[in-house]
Amino acid sequence: MKKFYITTAIDYVNAEPHIGHAYQKIVADAISRWHSLKGDKVWFLTGTDEHGQKIAKSAKQANLSEKAFVDKMSKKFKQAWDFLEIRYSKFIRTTDREHIRFVQDFIKKIRKEIYKGTYEGLYCEGCEAFVTEKDLVNGECPYHRKKPEKIKEECYFFKLSKYQSQLLKLYETDFILPKEKRNEIKNRVKEGLKDLCITRTNFSWGVPFPGDEGHIVYVWFDALLNYLSGANGNWPADIHLLGKDNAWFHAVIWPAMLLSAGYELPKHIFIHGFLSYQGQKISKSLGNCIYPLELAKRYGVDSVRFAILRIPFNGDDGDISPEVIIERNNNELANKLGNLISRTTTLIEKYGLEKTPNILLKKLPLKQIQSHLDNYETDKALEKIFIFIDICNEFIQSKKPWETRDTKVLYQLADSIKAITILLSPFIPETTEKIAKHFQFPIKLDEINKPLKLTKLKKSEILFKKIDGTKA
Ligand SMILES: [Zn+2]
């Protein structure tokens, strides 16, 4: 059995989960479900990042202890992902005791490459990152539009600079996806690497540094290790999904840490763009946080998942809005998929169906769809599946089984719906489960080429209701 280990970023719990967080989790879930469908042994890790300066401050503002605050916030992320049918294997929290112990053991392991010194420079609290003038736009962090603070602290450094040539060699492989993202990182690493400050002393909410407990481990050093501490024997990861603001940590710091401790490297990291909402950046400070739960309750889980998975997943930014969700729901899920199933089952209830070789299925570009899914091109896979749905709708239109009562035509339609349902199952799990139950076939990839064993069928319930856009 082939294994497949996929991770998402673990979310920083200083604010509630918004649709931008959900974007990555939904894509990861679809990819992970695709691998399960293929029969791979899947390990899908997600969770929350719970240490650091910003969280200590947010807890104080909320009048809670840090622990009570992160417990409350982490639960909200977990609930959101559960509601959105994100079927993770493990939900890791960086405050888990096993994780903390792992971080401390890791540091002991690479202790020879850590030395004490003083950090004097800039720190963006929003990013929880040590930054340089080069990272800034007009003196401000481009992600947080804030001036970073100047800090001077005694700290421990990790000899990151040592790994420059090994990292540059790594960037010649397909480690970084999409490949368009490679050059920027390569060029910055070529300019030279400074050793990384990996402890803080001016607050205490973090993992105590072994051997010098006045220091706590820098939150990113702690957080990145979740991929190892939560691997459950599945290391190396096949893919880490991450937003473009986290590229440096995953493309530079993380592989250097692994090389230092003698671990295998993950096969790929995938740097994706941001999701905006109605053309606007989503952020707490802009006050336009869209909570995925609200959207999913209003429009349905599968309709929200579908609209998000329809966005090109290629490293570029994407945009979502109620209008887009409604349009995808009405035009594609209701009109194309829903209609095909409703017409087919209505006719089969009346006229029955008769087993015959399914010539229609030859028009399904199965190999292309599989290859898109293996290459994380979830949007392209959906596009191809919907082209086939169009073909099925044209077939029913041209064969007119309501006039001919041709039960062989109806069988081919039902058998094609089976293939469509199986391929759509990673994207819209709730609805595809309903369809599979109605047509009585198991959701397994090799069922696509096994003829449907059905002799009669009742009319299906309405799977997707059209949403009235004027009431959105
Ligand atoms: Zn920042």
Structure report:
The chain is of the alpha/beta class. The chain has a domain at 321-470: Orthogonal Bundle (Isoleucyl-tRNA Synthetase, Domain 1). Helices cover 45% and strands 15% of the residues. It contains 17 helices and 16 strands. The protein has helices at 19-38, 53-61, 66-83, 97-109, 164-170, 182-190, 219-224, 226-229, 247-261, 292-299, 301-309, 322-351, 366-374, 378-399, 401-404, 407-424, 429-439; strands at 3-7, 11-12, 41-49, 90-93, 114-124, 129-131, 149-158, 176-177, 196-197, 199-200, 216-217, 239-243, 268-272, 275-277, 280-281, 318-320. The strands form four sheets. Strands 1, 2, 3, 4, 8, 12 and 13 form a seven-stranded parallel sheet that branches. Strand 5 and strand 6 form a beta hairpin. Helix 12 (322-351) packs parallel to helix 14 (378-399), helix 12 (322-351) runs antiparallel to helix 16 and helix 16 (407-424) runs antiparallel to helix 17 (429-439). The mean pLDDT is 95. The structure holds zinc ion. Zinc ion (ZN) binds at residues 124, 126-127, 141, 143-144. The site of zinc ion (ZN) has 6 residues, from loops.
Summary of the model, kept short:
With 472 residues, the protein is an alpha/beta fold. It is 45% helix and 15% strand.
Mean pLDDT across residues: 95
Supply the number of helical segments: 17
Q: What proportion of the residues is helical, as a percent range?
A: 40-55%
Structural class: alpha/beta
* CATH class call of the domain at 321-470: Mainly Alpha
CATH superfamily of the domain at 321-470: Isoleucyl-tRNA Synthetase, Domain 1
CATH architecture of the domain at 321-470: Orthogonal Bundle
Unreliable residue stretches: none
Strand count: 16
Query: How many strands, which pairing sense, and closed or not: the largest β-sheet?
Result: 7 strands, parallel
N→C terminal distance = 46 Å
Strand content bin: 5-15%
Fill in the CATH topology of the domain at 321-470: Isoleucyl-tRNA Synthetase, Domain 1
The coarse silhouette is elongated
Give the radius of gyration: 25 Å
Hetero ligands:
zinc ion
